[in-house]
Specification:
Shape: elongated
Structural class: alpha+beta
Number of domains: 1
Number of helices: 3
Radius of gyration: 16 Å
CATH topology: Multidrug-efflux Transporter Regulator, Chain: A, Domain 2
Order of helices and strands: EHHEEH
Number of strands: 3
Strand order of the largest sheet: 1-3-2
């Protein structure tokens, strides 16, 4: 179970379906907490920190949607 506690940035990118560079930017900006370990300074994200980040994103999205209701003629975007 301890092996599942920390994720590599590539794993985080795959889970979030974003690029490795976007994941690195989230870590470097402080939006996604991570630690740097080992002699080569490899980044690791704790699984609970990732889950908390995802939960925050849901809350921020909910607040955004509440503040910006859909109007007639609005087009869905990715």
């Amino acid at each position: 179970m301890a092996a599942d506690r920390f994720l590599q940035l590539a794993d985080v990118a795959e889970i979030l379906n974003i690029s490795a560079s976007q994941t690195y930017a989230l870590v470097r900006s402080g939006e996604l907490p991570a630690i740097k370990i080992g002699g080569r300074g490899q980044w690791r994200v704790e699984r609970t920190a990732l889950e908390a980040y995802i939960a925050r994103c849901y809350e921020e999205t909910k607040a955004f949607v509440s503040a910006h209701p859909v109007r007639d003629g609005d087009v869905a975007e990715d």
